[in-house]
Structures are given as structure tokens and as C-alpha cells.
Amino acid sequence: MSWAPTVSLSWMWGLGFFYSMHIVWIQGWTGFWVFALANACGLGLFGVVLGSRRRDPETLFGRIGPRFVSLFLLCQAGAVAITLFSLGTYFWPLLFPGADASTRLALTGLVVALACIIGHANTLRRLSFLHIGYLFIAAAAIAIAWATMPPTPVSAVAVDTPATLSVWTFLLPTLVGFALGPWGDLQQWQRAIEIRRSGSSAVVAYVGGALIFLGLLVANAVLSRSAGLHILVGTDGAIGAQSSVAARFAAEGVGVGLIALAVWAAIAAISTIDSFYCAARWYLSSLLAKSMHPALAFVPLAAATSPLWLLGVAIAAAVTMSGMGLSQTAYIMPYATLLVGATACLLAECILRPVRFDSVACYLFGVAAGLVFFIGYREGIPFLVPLSTVIALVGAVMPIRSMLGERSALLPARAAEMAAKAIDRGDTGGETSADGPAHAVSPGAMATANSNTTPAYGFDGQWFVMQVTPTYDDTNSVGNVYFANYVRWVGKARELFFNACMPNFDLGTTRYLVLTKSFEHDFRREIAEFEPVTIRVRIARHNRKFVTLGHEILSDRHGLLGRGEQALMFVDRESFKPLDIPGDIIRGFLPFWPSNRPESTVPSVQDGSRMAG
User: Which residues cross the membrane (predicted)?
Assistant: First the structure.
């Protein structure tokens, strides 16, 4: 249960804190319970599913993390933006009505800076202990605020909820949006993984966290009902009661209750932003550490993995939201429209282990759904609000059907993987399959029309492939090809690869030199003369300074003969000082830069069976 407080507080943010105060007035207790239970149940089910012994959250996230980058980053930026927008719209103006706008902006900036300091200085494990303390302080602040609530005068304003804001209009968007919400939240994924690593139960942590979260929502709703109604109207014409508690305390001037409310609001905001900082840093570091994108040769890794740029995006979004003046309800609807398709596909991938999803279709349907929602919400057409969520779900149907259909494709993929492993063992003998007689698997030597010893070479996907035929001149005293020839052939393939990528490279005028930093080769098998050999070279990985080439040597008869790597470095031709990867190298190698897709990193048995260009 030590993880439950951080689970609950990280899921509160500005939406849970202020929307619970709003919904209990606009939709009554029925609407509140729909909102609160959908939220709490979605959070608890996330932990129950990932807490299953059959699922390892770390393995799952390792597969989906690089594939749903846009979803994870949009959800994080949205959480922070809505929190900052809510503070600036529903809290500071009511607590400090005479303060200048710049002062209220400075207060928000102070909360952000403090949260970032805490997130930067602590790991998630230490943050979870801090959140236990936060929770006790929050509980005390809520109790003080409730105990010191001024008597509520009879309100002359009756809530006349329009049809577009009714419980039934928002039922489907609420259920779908909040049930799927935790799956797109980096903070919850990081917690689920860390809970498993620590040996604790994700089920206990998330069910406990969901109950605490539900209790906090109920406490805010009770405070709001005790405070009385205070209505704000957005530029979209929507009414909102998010500021009811703040307005009631502010009407009495500065007092203990107002201070307690400010403490509780600050805890809700800080626990959101420090969790965001910790989760974004963790995700970006793991994501970009494995990235082969050439832009990282120019951007310092520390800058690329810093959460501050994503925080800047969230702040810019919050400023834009404040400038537009729409209600909070309008800004939370992307979670029930735009992001629904991608989140549904992510959930399907976690449960069904599919191959891929159509992100373009998901987001296009999401955009259409968001526009339908906005039209219905703004023009008072109630049925368009739930219809928008249906449209978003339809956008997920085609990708999910595609994913389910491609499950059958896993069998050939696994067969290819087993064949690749057989080559790695040197086992290329015939095998009997259910579909036909025994046959020999080709390890990937290119067919060539030439019968002489002239090398055939060219590109086959990301591989540069060269074929040679050894002669007696290449063998040693016992009739095997001399080991040094393998190194020489790899070097020849590398030079041809380099020449194909950079045909205009001139050693006489170049500003830099390309040097071999290291060379490794693992010998597997021997061959004799006149056995065709295929040498394959490709870019395996890189950082700012070095490019690593991977190579394989294959025989039509014996399979894998050996594989290895070589690291290239770049130095100034005058001073011999190491350089970052030169720009023309990146431009020349870019078409053959390694992909991050898992299927591109597994050598295919058929890679060399096609004729190279």
C-alpha cells in the first residue's frame, strides 16, 4: 500500500481537483458518481491488468513505448496544460481578485518551478515516499477547509443545466475517456513498472490508489456543495462551477480555510508536475538512448531527454487555452475524442499482442470526432456529443481488426526467426514442414549471372551486399580459406558501401578522415575454394561521434560463416582531433540509417536472396 498515495495523487491533476467541484453542481450527485467511479475504476483496472502474473509491465512497455510516442507525449502535455489552465482560471483570480495578472502568472510559475525541483532531485521511489507525506498534509488541509467553511448564504442562482452538459449527454464520453485514460499516462506506466521491480503488488497499489483517489474526489465534491454555487461562463457559453470553493473562501478574506484550500490545491498541482517531470525524463531517456535518428548527432542528448521542452509545450498550450477562454469541459474532451483511437489500440496491443496499428487513421478519426463534439457542444446539439466518442471508437475498429487479422502473420514471422537462428547455429540442413517436403534454407547468397570471380554488389534494403567466390589463392595449406581474407572482404564491402553512399568523396580535398576505431569478428565456420560467399554490411547504430557497422558473412552451402562489428570515427585531417559525425556523412548514409522498428533489427533469411541493384 506504500505505492497507493503516489498512484492517487499523480492521477488527480487539475482535472480531478476542479472537475469534481464542478460536476457535482452541473450534473448533480448522479453525474458526479458517474465521473468519479469511471475515473477510479479505470485507474484500478489498469493496475489489475498489469498486475497479472502473465504480464510484465516492463516488457510490454518496451514494445509499445517507441510505437505510441505521440500518444504518451500528448497525454502528458495535456495533463500539465489543463492543471496550469485550471489554476490560472478557477483559483488565483478568485483567491486574489485584486492581484495583477502578472502576479497570478508568477504564482503559477512558482508552483511549476517547485514541482520541477522536486521531480529533478528525486527518483520515483523517493517521490512515492514524498507523496505519502503530501497525502497526509492534503487530508489535514481538506479537514481544516471543511471545518472552517463559512456559512453558505442562500443562492439566488439556480443551476439550469443545458442539455449539452447533462449526465446522459456526457455518459459515453465520460465512461470511455476516463476508463482508457490511465493507459496513455506515462506516470502510471512508470509506477506499474517500478512497483513490479520492487516486488510489490500492482493490484494492491492501484486498487488502493483508486480508493484514495475516489475519497479525494468525494471530499472535493462535499467542499463544493458546502461552499455554495459560484458560476463562471466561458467564451463558449458553457457554465462552470469549478471555482465554487475558492470563491466562497475568498469572499471572507484571508483566513485559515483559504490557506488550507491553497495548500491542498498546491499539493494537487505539485504532485502532478513532479510526477510528470520524473516520468517524462524516464521515458525520453529510455526512448532516445536507443534512437538512431540522425538529428541526435546535432542535439545534445541531455537537452533532448530533458522534460523541460515538453513542459514548455504544456505551458504554451495553457497560455493558448487561457487566451481562448473556453471552459475546462471543452479542453478535456480530446481525451474522449482525439486520443481514444490510439489509446484503444494501445490497450489492444497490451492484451492481444498485435503487430502494428494505423496511427494515421486513429488520429484522423480522432480529429473528426473532436470537431463533431465541438460543433454539438458549441451549437447546443446534444446528440453530437456522444456521437463524437462513437466516431473516435470507430477509428479504432479498423486498426484493431487489422491487428487481429495480422495475428496469423506471427506464425510466418516466428518461422523466419527460427530459420535465422538455425543459420546462426550453422544448421542449414533440410527440414520437413507440414506444407511440403524437406528443403534447404538459403542463407541469403545473391544469385548472379556471372560465372567469373568479379564481385557482384549493391543494396538490399538497409544491407549493402557483396558476393565473392574464393579461389586457391585465398586458401591456406590445409585447403580452407585463410582467416585474413574474411577481414579483407569485409573491408572491401565497407569501402564499396561508403563509395555508393558518398560517390563525390575526395580524399584529396576532404576536411576530415574516416578511421577504423575498432573491429570485431566472430568466426563460425570454414569454407573451401569456389564456394560462393556473400558479405553483408549495414549501419548498426551511432552516437554523436561514432558510426558502428555490422557485418555478416554467409555461404550458400554452410550458412553463417561469421559476423561482427566495426566502429568508425571521424577526425580533423590537420589536427587529428575527433569530430562529431560530419553533416555530409549523415546526408549520404541517411537512406540506409537504421530503423527503430523491431522487424528491421532482426536479420531476415531472405535479405540476401533478392538481386542487389
Answer: 7-26, 32-50, 71-92, 104-122, 129-149, 161-183, 203-223, 258-284, 296-319, 331-348, 360-377, 383-404
Q: Where are the domains of the chain?
A: 4-324, 337-425, 456-601
Question: How many separate helices (H) and strands (E) can be counted in the chain?
Answer: 22, 10
Per-residue pLDDT at 453 exceeds 50: no
* Alpha-carbon gap, residue 52 to 203, rounded angstroms: 8
CA atoms 86, 27, 251, 148: torsion sign:
negative
Superfamily covering domain 456-601: Hotdog Thioesterase (3.10.129.10)
Is the model more confident about 354 or about 8? 8
CB 14 within 8 A of CB 268: yes
Is residue 207 helix, strand or coil?
A: helix
Look up residue 345 and give its three cell numbers.
489500440
Dump pLDDT digits (tens) for 257-278. 999 999 999 999 999 999 999 9
- CA 186 to chain centroid, in Å, comes to 7
Place of cell 514442414: 433
Other CB atoms within 10 A of residue 551 CB: 27
Asked whether residue 115 carries a pLDDT value surpassing 90, the answer given is yes
Alpha-helical (H) ranges within 91-123 are: 92-95, 101-121
The candidate with the shortest Cα–Cα distance to 561, out of 535, 600, 530, is 535
CB 564 within 8 A of CB 508: no
> Which helix (H) or strand (E) covers residue 571, if one does?
strand 559-572
Amino acid 202 reads A
DSSP-derived letter for residue 509 is T
Dihedral of CA 435/437/438/444: which sign?
negative
pLDDT of residue 394: 87
In the predicted model, what is the mean pLDDT of residues 321-345? 89
Tell me: pLDDT of 124 over 90: yes
State the cell numbers at 21: 467541484
Q: In the chain, how long is the greatest CA-to-CA distance?
A: 106
CA 191 to chain centre: 15
How many CB atoms are located within 10 Å of the residue 209 CB? Answer: 28
C-alpha cell at 305: 531527454
CA triple 273-274-279, angle to 5 deg: 95
Burial environment of residue 202 by CB neighbours within 10 A (0 to 12, 13 to 18, 19 or more): buried
Q: Which three cell numbers stand for residue 1?
A: 500500500
Closest CA to 35 of 191, 236, 220, 244: 220
Residue 426 · residue 560 · CB < 8 Å: yes
Do the strands 546-555 and 533-542 form a parallel or antiparallel pair, or are they unpaired? antiparallel
The C-alpha cell 482525439 sits at: 338
The chain-wide mean pLDDT, for the chain, equals: 83
Nearest to 258 by CA among 97, 86, 82: 97
Residue type, 495: E
| Three cell numbers written together for 170 | 456526457
For the entire predicted model, the pTM comes to 0.69
Alpha carbon distance 594, 566 (integer Å): 15
Q: Which of 450, 371, 358 is nearest to 400 (CA)?
A: 358
* Helix or strand (DSSP H, E) at 552: strand 546-555
Neighbours of 345 (CB within 10 A): 29
